[in-house]
Design a protein that fits this description.
This protein has 323 residues and is mostly helical. It is 78% helix and 0% strand. The protein has helices spanning 10-30, 36-71, 80-86, 90-98, 104-120, 124-137, 141-157, 161-174, 178-190, 194-207, 211-223, 227-240, 244-256, 260-274, 278-290, 294-303, 308-320. InterPro entries: TPR-like_helical_dom_sf (IPR011990).
Length: 323
């Protein structure tokens, strides 16, 4: 048999192969002879042969999926309802979409819009039913991808991470979508499967420059015991992010996990952007003091003359030191 080609009548072939394999196996088991070693080799060859076929079938299936991605028709559905949907007017969009009509795959896209509009207006059971129906009637990989994603989001809203992963993985197998990869990272993080979460967040950050994802990647690594790798991710984030909001979130995150030097660096970056405001100086001095710099304690005392929050931080340090 040529590897990679399943003979016509594959079901008959498989049934015949199993019968032949089992008959030879039982014969060896019940009546072993000096020839049994050779027969076992034959069994091994038969097993490898069918594994080769199944392996080739799996590869061919993957190639078929890729071809479907490349050649799938790009169906477009545009209407008053989709315009309202794009404007985030989901209640109005839902009303319009339900009164519209389309044909063929465009009808399935209309139903998909209805399901998402239901989801965004928190009609979760209606949305689930809509997504499941689309999965039954559509053969377009992109449409079914978004239907699986929709159900995955519903499960995430209900914090059913394991169930969400089942649908998100199906969506991920149909086409590349960074949002699905990010959501898978979130689900695995919820389940405390930090290695898997880190893998998905890393994949996401390879295609999307997203500060939140970098922070979550670092957090997954940190909680998974890869502390040095986490510090490296957070440091890269602090060096490359130019959003004050993201930098402040990173400063708070690293402070919470006792990474005070990283927190100080984040505050330094913030002061480079926004100047040495009292709030940023307070955050910097507080983390510098917690990292063991006695000069930062004096800075907190000076800041405390005009800032109640800085004064309270200085008092906390004095109390901790028995002062």
């Amino acid at each position: 048999m040529k590897q990679g080609i399943l003979p016509l009548g594959g079901g008959i072939f498989l049934h015949s192969w199993i019968n032949e394999w089992q008959a030879l196996y039982q014969n060896i088991w019940q009546s072993p002879t000096s020839k049994s070693i050779d027969d076992v080799i034959v069994l091994e060859q038969m097993t490898q042969q069918v594994l080769d076929v199944w392996g080739a079938m799996d590869e061919a299936l993957n190639q078929l999926r890729q071809r479907l991605k490349e050649t799938a028709p790009m169906f477009v559905y545009e209407s008053e309802g989709t315009i309202l949907f794009d404007a985030h007017q989901f209640d109005e969009a839902l009303c319009c979409l339900k009164n519209e009509e389309a044909e063929g795959e465009r009808e399935n896209i209309r139903l998909l819009y209805i399901a998402y509009a239901s989801l965004y207006t928190e009609k979760f059971e209606e949305a689930r039913s809509g997504f499941l129906y689309v999965l039954q009637v559509s053969f377009d990989p992109l449409v079914t991808h978004f239907a699986y994603l929709g159900i995955g989001i519903i499960e995430m809203v209900a914090r059913r991470a394991e169930e969400a992963i089942l649908f998100l993985e199906k969506a991920n197998s149909l086409t590349d979508n960074p949002d699905v990869v990010y959501n898978l990272g979130i689900c695995y993080y919820w389940l405390e499967a930090y290695d898997s979460a880190a893998a998905y967040f890393h994949s996401y950050t390879q295609v999307c420059d997203d500060a939140d994802a970098f922070m979550l990647l670092g957090l997954s690594l940190y909680k998974g015991g890869m502390v040095e790798e986490a510090r490296g991710v957070w440091l890269d984030c602090a060096e490359n992010v130019d959003s004050s909001e993201a930098l402040l979130a990173l400063a708070k995150l690293t402070e919470w996990y006792g990474e005070h030097e990283l927190a100080c660096y984040s505050y330094e970056q913030l002061m480079f952007i926004n100047g040495k405001t009292p709030e940023l100086l307070h955050g910097f001095a507080w983390n510098q003091a917690l990292s063991g710099d006695s000069r930062a304690v004096d800075l907190l005392f000076e800041l405390g003359k005009t800032s109640q929050q800085a004064y309270e931080s200085w008092c906390m340090l004095q109390a901790a030191q028995g002062g």
